[in-house]
Structure formats: C-alpha cells, structure tokens
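Quarterly update from the structural biology core.
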Amino acid sequence: MKYLVTGSTGQLGYDIVRLLEENNYDYIAPDSQDLDITDQSKVKEIISNYKPNVVFHCAAYTKVDKAEEDKDACYNVNVNGTKNIVEAARNINAKVVYISTDYVFDGTKEDSYTEEDKTNPINYYGYTKLMGEHEVQTLEDYLIVRISWVFGINGSNFVKTMLKLSEDKDELNVVSDQIGSPTYTEDLAKLLIDMVVKNKKGIFHVTNEEYCSWYEFAKYIFEINNIDIKVNPILTENYPTKAKRPLNSKLNKDKLDYENLDRLPSWKDATDRYCKILRRNKS
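Predicted structure, tokenized:
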C-alpha cells in the first residue's frame, strides 16, 4: 500500500505522517511548495507518477473568520483544490480520505448530529468544506471524516492560545454556549489509519469522547497546568466574530460502534496527554 498526505505541515497531516513513518509505510507527504493543490496539472502529475492507493487529504483553508472576506481563496483551496485531488485519484482508482468539519451543520439541533442529518452550514468555511464533501462523494471509494475543535503538536490551536494568553492575563472571557468535542490529532491519526486498513467507506463522525463548552475546555486546560486565572463564561452573542459558529457541534459517533471501530479516549484524557507533551517540549 502506498499513501500520499496533503497538508502534512498542518496539525493532523503532521501526525498522520509521523505514524506512517513509525510503521514503515510507503508514503510521500509533499508540502504546499511541492504540491499546490489548486494547481490542477501539478496535482495530476504528482499523483499519477506516485500512484498512491490512498490519499489522506488534510490540506485546507481553515481560517474561519478570514474566509468570510477572502472567499475566493477559501473556495479555491477547499473546493477547487479538493476537486483536483479527486480527479487525479479517480484516474488511478485511489481512495480519498477527506477531513471535514462540524461546521457543515447549523447547530440548531437539540441532540447530537448523525452522519445522515441534513447539512446547513452557517459560515463560508463550512460551506466550502461541504462542497468539498460533494466532490469527494463522486468517487466510488472515499472516506469522509467530520471532526471538530482540533488540537495537535504541529500548529496553532485553542489549547496553545489559552496557555499563551495566560502568560500576561489574569482574567479571560470564554464562550460557554457553544458545545462540542475537542479532537486530538494524535488519537485521530491512529483511527484514520485503522479505518483505511479496514477499508471503511462513507461518512463518519470522529472526535474524542464526551462533550464540553469552550469555557469548560479552557477551565480544564488551566486546571491541569496549575494556572491560576479567572475564566468568565460569556454568551456567543457577546463575543461577535465575522463568521457565525454553530451553538451545537455535538457529533454522534455511534457509527464507529456499528463498524467495529474503536472510539477515541475522552477529551480530558487527550488534553492531559497533550499538555504533558507541551510541558516536556517547553522544558
């Protein structure tokens, strides 16, 4: 089996590459300089020459607020770029593993979202990721994995932002009415490779177990790092952003059970392990 990873310098791509390396898999992971996914001819050239069996498509435009103003760039990467990957993969009958998002939903449902629920993105980033899903679904063999609230070693994320802010602030306001699940890329990468090895197909929801608000997430981060800081819960309406966020980002993972796949550990367990690595790297 041969693998190609796009977005290998991002949080998830980095961990997928690390696992492929550790397990001596045959893979290539061109960075954005070597593989601009918006360049159709370059995508076709690299994929047709290497002929991977599986493409882990992690590259994406992920600046959610900036996407509201920079729509062309966001669409070009998330839709046109994905279309280029899909067309090149189709030519060699490769499977595409596409990383999607909770933002394909509007967040108005009372309960957790299943893979079959109606999509209705309320920001432009979510819209482009959904359009990317539609491109991938034109393939015979695809795996779409929707995730949320991502954190990993390589890149910026909520955990790192909270720790950075706590260095010179003694009080923070954090949104308390958006509910979801953090997703640790190290845990996710392991499951993604397992899903590919087991030849899983279709759409899946994958996050770490249990739900929380951003406020609860922040409180836990400070607690386990012994940081004394006051965290104030605030409502989304009191923290205006350019892009609207869904209030309910709870993703239902029952399909993992039906497909005999392991669920990820709890988000608290994942945050504990992640923060230990951050502290070790800092010392």
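The first strand starts at residue 2 and ends at 6.
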